[in-house]
Amino acid sequence: MRYERWLPLILVPFTVANLTGCGITDPAAGPDGSTESGYSDRLERTAPKKLARKEAEQRVEYLKNEDIASLTALFSQDAKDNHDLEKEWKDFFSRIDGKFTGYGGISFPGEGMGVDKEGVIYDSHLSINYNDSVTDTGAVYTQIGYYQTRINTADPRIEGINIFTVMIPGKDGEKGEYITVGGIGEQETTP
Q1: Whose C-alpha in 87, 123, 163, 171 is 20 to 30 A from the C-alpha of 41?
Q2: What is this structure's pTM?
Q3: Going by CATH, does the domain composed of 49-182 fall within 3.10.50.40?
């Protein structure tokens, strides 16, 4: 009986804070809203997925709009130098059944980070998947995503998206095929 009176007074502030996200909208912003590199660097070290999730949500909008220029700009300098990304994106979108309209969730099937003895990150990379991506025709793509090098002090030219891929399902039990945009290193040529 005593708790019934105080319970709403305790729960209301927690509910408001939960619904509003405590006022922090930029995942790289510090508690005061600043985006100084110190806080962003700490977040890169402790929660790279938090940073990557926000970026992935924006990138799916580029996919929905088939915004080739914005998607291409996200790639590493190495991929830009060694691949005709605009052509590869055009091929990518031409082989998708319809236009992307949404996805079921974002997952991170792979990640890695290297930190030297002074605590400086020298390598950070992630794989990001859009689970159960759907198109306006009702097609569902279970395997679509990208590999991104977030930090590589040994070769900064590979920082950015390295490769974007989708698995096109096979028909009648046949094995599907992967369509890729970008890559690391020189593009393979087919005879």
Answers
A1: 163
A2: 0.72
A3: no
What's the pLDDT band for 166 if we cut at 50, 70, 90?
very high
What residue segments make up the domains of the chain, in order of their start?
49-182
Residue 64: partners with Cβ closer than 8 Å, 6 or more residues away? 99, 100, 101, 102
Q: Give the three-class secondary structure for 172.
A: coil
The beta-strand segments (E) located in 100-143 are 100-102, 105-115, 121-131, 133-135, 140-141
Average pLDDT over residues 78-86: 96
Cα first-last separation, the chain: 81
Instruction: Name the percent of the chain in helix, strand, coil, to the closest 5.
Output: 40, 30, 30
pLDDT of the residue at 175: 80
State the Cα–Cα distance between residues 2 and 94, nearest whole angstrom: 65
